Amino acid sequence: xxxxxxxxxxxxxxxxxxxxxxxxxxxxxxxxxxxxxxxxxxxxxxxxxxxxxxxxxxxxxxxxxxxxxxxxxxxxxxxxxxxxxxxxxxxxxxxxxxxxxxxxxxxxxxxxxxxxxxxxxxxxxxxxxxxxxxxxxxxxxxxxxxxxxxxxxxxxxxxxxxxxxxxxxxxxxxxxxxxxxxxxxxxxxxxxxxxxxxxxxxxxxxxxxxxxxxxxxxxxxxxxxxxxxxxxxxxxxxxxxxxxxxxxxxxxxxxxxxxxxxxxxxxxxxxxxxxxxxxxxxxxxxxxxxxxxxxxxxxxxxxxxxxxxxxxxxxxxxxxxxxxxxxxxxxxxxxxxxxxxxxxxxxxxxxxxxxxxxxxxxxxxxxxxxxxxxxxxxxxxxxxxxxxxxxxxxxxxxxxxxxxxxxxxxxxxxxxxxxxxxxxxxxxxxxxxxxxxxxxxxxxxxxxxxxxxxxxxxxxxxxxxxxxxxxxxxxxxxxxxxxxxxxxxxxxxxxxxxxxxxxxxxxxxxxxxxxxxxxxxxxxxxxxxxxxxxxxxxxxxxxxxxxxxxxxxxxxxxxxxxxxxxxxxxxxxxxxxxxxxxxxxxxxxxxxxxxxxxxxxxxxxxxxxxxxxxxxxxxxxxxxxxxxxxxxxxxxxxxxxxxxxxxxxxxxxxxxxxxxxxxxxxxxxxxx
Length: 672
Hints:
Layout: H1 7-29, E1 35-44, E2 47-56, E3 66-70, H2 81-88, E4 93-98, E5 106-107, H3 115-118, H4 122-131, E6 146-151, H5 153-172, E7 177-183, H6 188-192, H7 197-203, E8 208-212, H8 223-227, H9 241-247, E9 259-261, E10 264-269, H10 282-295, H11 312-337, H12 360-379, H13 381-386, H14 389-415, H15 420-441, H16 443-447, H17 458-484, H18 500-528, E11 532-534, E12 537-539, H19 544-571, H20 580-608, H21 618-644, H22 648-664
Parallel strand pairs: 3-4, 3-6, 6-7, 7-8, 8-10
Antiparallel strand pairs: 1-2, 2-4, 2-5, 9-10, 11-12
GO molecular function: hydrolase activity
Keywords: Hydrolase, Membrane, Transmembrane, Transmembrane helix
Transmembrane segments: 317-337, 367-387, 393-412, 424-441, 461-482, 503-524, 544-563, 583-600, 620-640, 647-671
């Protein structure tokens, strides 16, 4: 990390990576310029929808079969890159749609039940718009040659769109939807809306319809497992009553085989994939291409056929190069800003490196604390994120015990007139124990989606982060007063000591650096219509509502990045962790336990067919996205602490960048 001594060189490297990655990604995204990619917005009865429109050359003069593809609960339209690229280069018009209150789309209707506000009508509202466009092909009777496809909640939206279209057909005699292909969704949430399997299957009518049902999908395709609250198991959808009903109840149905039902054709693909894996899969993409080849076989004079020659993954890899450049960018920008007046106040006097623990007991304590702070964030992630009853009950009971114990210790220290350290330390621990208990009792309020905190998947992450922060601070206080203080440690050794000017300069530096980074992102989007991403890790452009949400969530996330960063600095303050070991330990502090969580969860799923935590579907997917983000945060924290002598720049830049990355990539309700 000392190689950042020449920030201009690294600034150039980051720009080169961003430019090369973005230009290359753009070339694959537009199929070498043969496809025009643009962002469109259009008004609907329920708000404003947006998406990336992929329009092949010649589509304005010769209308084409069209695909509308959309995403699931956690994502945005860009997650449909594979279908968008592969089908547009084969001659299809493609709209990669942001559903309401995701990405660049906004829902303006009231939301008595927010979850049912964004997906039921998103696809069909987009169908109504696309059907009216001149570049969308219709047959001689006026039926639309439009395919609808979606992943997860996008799959529900696609299926519901078919149901709505079939109902409209009864009045108009026109079907605007020609075919449908869903990924990672069964009928679970459609049934909650009051629909039954028979009516859903009947609505497909003469269309060709397909499903991609991953055998290791965390949510769907096994109603019995889902009903028992243990859905993360291996599935065989074609063997279920629902899957067979979709196929028309053939004898001994086989995945990948096409069956006739109700005048149309049906097929179920079952790749060995998890729920998010569908996005980043050559197999699923090949199945999709094959499906559309069959569905639009009568229009092969206007489109190309064949599964070969997939190129979407090259766009993803190029975007990953740009993503690396994006994160590298912040270090040289911060170092260059710090050469300016006022901004150079981010530097504080560096505290000396503390000696190694001398006794076997102190060494063992140090190792145990490292293990604990690494594992704790993962041990109770499912309880704090998913409100597991037994886990939360245990945490509250432990919290009450801590309150009683610290209260007794504090009272005894006053009566016996113990040292100032004992009195101060026990009082701080008592206060933190009470705060922790209040937090644990307030879980429902933190997890609730409200007009103020409108991101339903971010709320539980904030709640988890705050609880982890309080526990980490309790451990740090105890460790400091019991061990580190006697070794000569002060808060300066942990990067906490700083004056008001240093803190203000650190905040200003982080704001400007974040503005520069995201400004480059918007420039890349404007020029090349790509962003920075790899699979579930994405840095994408955002709207005003996301910036407003950032201002609301950032103070809470700052608590996490500040306290966990301080905990890392405390445990890496000795000579042993002066070099690369310090970075490794920093990463372990942030994500060590979470990585073990994923290994345990998915290792057992693939080996035995049942996950380590079979009831944890959404939370385990959230962890997949958290790990790389927090790894980067750990590196920022460690490097900037060692460079500036304090924790503030690292905490501020992590808060601004990582919070915006999180908010821009998921559901955000803005109108209730």
